[in-house]
Amino acid sequence: MGSVHFKDREFTCNCCGKGKVDPLLIAKLEVLRSLLGDKPIIITSGYRCEKHNRKVGGASGSQHLKGKAADIVVRGLKPYQVYYYADKVFANGGVGIYKKHIHVDTANRRRWEG
User: How far apart are CA 6 and CA 91, in angstroms?
Assistant: First the structure.
């Protein structure tokens, strides 16, 4: 289900190697990449199995469990710079800003700092 810039393996669980990804998530990540001047987006966490989600302290209802979320970084940009554009691209989804990364998902609109 990958795309020009994103491969399915980027979204697989670091624990078990399994994975799934929402096609809408990939489409929105492509738009975000374009808005960021075609800078590569690095997926630091995509799909998570239950075990891995617990290990990293993820929420019990995490969108990562459904393949609808990604934690991302963009080299050369600070999280707040990426957040500015992610807030627009994921207008109807979730966007969280953390010290070193941004979380994006295709679920309901939510905004938070972690």
Answer: 21
Q: Tell me the per-residue pLDDT of 26-39, one tens digit each, with 9 for 90 and over.
A: 999 999 999 999 99
Give the Cβ contact number of residue 4 at 10 Å. Answer: 8
pTM score, two decimals? 0.94
Which residue in the block uniquely carries the two structure tokens 């979320």? 69
Q: Give the pair of three-digit tokens for residue 11.
A: 């979204």
Measured between alpha carbons, how far is 47 from 87 in angstroms, rounded to an integer? 21
- Give dist(CA 111, CA 94) in Å, integer: 6
What DSSP string runs through 75-102? TTS-HHHHHHHHHHHTTTSEEEE-SS-E
Q: 90-111: b or e for each residue (b if 16 or more CB lie within 10 Å)?
A: beebbbbbeeebbbbbbbeeee
CATH topology of domain 8-107: Muramoyl-pentapeptide Carboxypeptidase; domain 2 (3.30.1380)
Q: Two tokens at 47?
A: 């799909």
